[in-house]
Amino acid sequence: MLAVEMKGINKTFGLVKANQDVHFCLEQGEIHALLGENGAGKTTLMRILYGLYKADDGEIFINGEKVNIASPKEAIAAGIGMVTQHFTLVPTLTVAENIVLGYTDGMLISQKEIEKSVEAASQKYGIDVNPAAMVKDLSVGERQRVEILKALYRNARVLIMDEPTAVLVPQEVDVLFESLLRLVKEGLSVIFISHKLVEVMAVCDRITVLRDGRVTSTVNKADTSQTELAKMMVGRETFGVKSQSTKCSGNAIYELSGITLEGKHGKKILDNVSFCISSGEILGVAGVSGNGQGELTHVITGLICPTSGSIKIEGKEISHLSPGQISDAGVGRTPEDRHEGTIGELTVAENLAIENLKEFQKNGFLDQKRIVESAKEKIKEFQIKASPNDQLRKLSGGNMQKVVLARALARKPKVLIASQPTRGLDVGATEYVRKRLLEEKENGTAILLLSEDLDEVLALSDRIAVIYEGSIRGIVPSAEATPEKIGLLMAGAG
Amino acid sequence: MSKLRIERAAAPLWAKPLIPIVAVLVTFLVTSVLIIIAKANPVSAYYHLLIEPLSTRFSVLEVLVKSTPLILTGIAVTVAFASGYFNIGAEGQLYAGAIAAAWIGSTFVNLPAIVVIPLMMLLGFLAGVIWALIPALLKIKLKVDEVVTTLLMNSIMVYVVSWLLNGVWRNPETGAQQSPEFFEAARYIKLAAKSRLHLGFIVALVVVVIIYILIKKTPLGLKMRASGASKAGAQFAGINVNRTMLVAALISGGIAGLAGVGEIAGIHYHLINELSAGYGYTGIIAATLGGLNPIGVLIAALFIGLIGTGSLNVSMALRVPVYLGDVVQSTLLLVTLAMLLLQNYRIKRI
Question: Does the distance separating the beta carbons of B7 and A14 come in below 8 Å?
Fold first, then answer.
């Protein structure tokens, strides 16, 4: 009997057909991957199953019985649990309180009792948590375990995991996979949403690939390969971009030494960060999110002043300059968050021009004609799908990122800061951005790549610096870097 | 079968002119109840509110007179708001400008109009700038919320004016609380015979044009719009957001000061406590109604001037309480503001 069967699911948002005639079967006791690019309709389908969205039409069967799931409450009652990318825990409550929240009888809650019952569940399912700990003190991996236990505690027989590894370091991923494999043996069925081929091949039994809201195919793992899956996912073979050059560091053009940033209460958010980059080199900074990358970006781009340390470009000190002056000194900057680093209310052309207004004025007035002309050139060069007078906020993430990149490269910078350049982009846009970065590198630009996507850092960088709790744990040439080695450094080991 | 759905997207172009018309109709329905309770005919009340002011030359000019300070305070607020600086202090800045004008206009008796009028405008502008400077500095140096400080500066100004009118400027003979009368050369010229319409209206129109060009066509204007739309984005692009906000706050204060100059040099000819009927605050409404677009603000200010004139007519003609006119006026503004939200939606057949 099938644990879950979804038949002929259709869902439309405005003009977008998020799901079209989707058919999806989950067998008892299997891990079934839902694979697809961003926007392929994976999450929509699962939100329908979990009662967060209502399908326009289609039928859902649980254990062979037709059901109508109108809310998460009904989904939970039907034995479905979901662990989302963004956790839904209350940080100021304990683990036990979070797990029983909304699932208790009676008026009173005994702290001891719920801790005991959560402890028992933890033993039973083999998921290690500390019931008395406050959620805000937990690491991301621990929080995810709490989420899983919360679902199991509610007697979930089907567990939906929405990109569970996105926030984890490699070691935590291994622990997660072990737990999932064990739980599946005991009869749990898991739907594993992902766009990472390696993981899917590692842990899943069957794979359903979605593209543009339709099911491309459902295959057994044994009958397929990563290349084939990639082809099904994007309709063409990609993933070809790989840094070939192993150029050694020559003369450093950009140099950070001893950058330290103290936060409130004197806590060191950045601790003695030092590295250098030479022309035509990409230095990747890898790390789990929240280990100081954001602050490092802010310091480097001039948004905050470091407490101490120096940043030099061609020997010129720039650590205490304003963003505009840093840009004048030859540093092209892309923001960590493209929505924060741009002005959505202004037009594409205005956003492209705003960093360098001196070049776009005539007799004290804005030279509208040149602003638009120059924007047209950039739009063509960077294949941006927009016209100069479109409001920036109406652009897709990929096109917005291209605008950001075009602006950063407009003044032919000697150093380029690429912060999370492909976060949230689909495969096509990601590939374009990466190719462009490699081109810039070949042209002799020194590039600092800050990314939470380890694959990206490994693929593009000449050297990889690993940041952990605000300090650089090691800088490894890419030839010697393996995911395991980098993962250990990212997790603070070694 | 087709269903209808409301979605968030710009309303079609043809719907935009309908918005004020529908707003008037909705207000009519809402306030009719009150007018009927006050034993008057809602239809004739509306005639007096919206049509009668436009029916004679005198009252049309009177609408322009009423609109003059609102255009200026509306533009003042627009400059600040568009730059992300929430200046609620136009009222106080207006009085600052009026004080400067009151001093010039009654002191330099021997200067010709060609000298004294520009001098008065310049000093009125500067006085507004100075009154706006304190909260602006507090904002950019110490991050003190400007909404609070600019508002409190208004209260301080009330007492400054009161102190002047009870002190140095108190009329020694009559004891009246008003500054010395303006001499002839310092008075704004009248633009039309047998009306109160004065040079200030032209000043207001010129300011609209200048600010329109400033905001839309100059690098500073782009920086202001950028700072207002996204502080983080502007900062990242290398704009000195604090300096931009400071400039905007000071220009805003100066324009509000000009509104004060106009009221005193064009209408009253001496400073009194009740010089402004809350023009600084109504300017916020004009700016919001006008969508922070100088041309829109001009139209909004004229509209508010119209119903301001009309509401007086309503109470006089129908012998209903004056407050009823105010209620109609306020309701109309509220409904119009609410209706403007509808611009962001459209109905779709699915």
Answer: yes
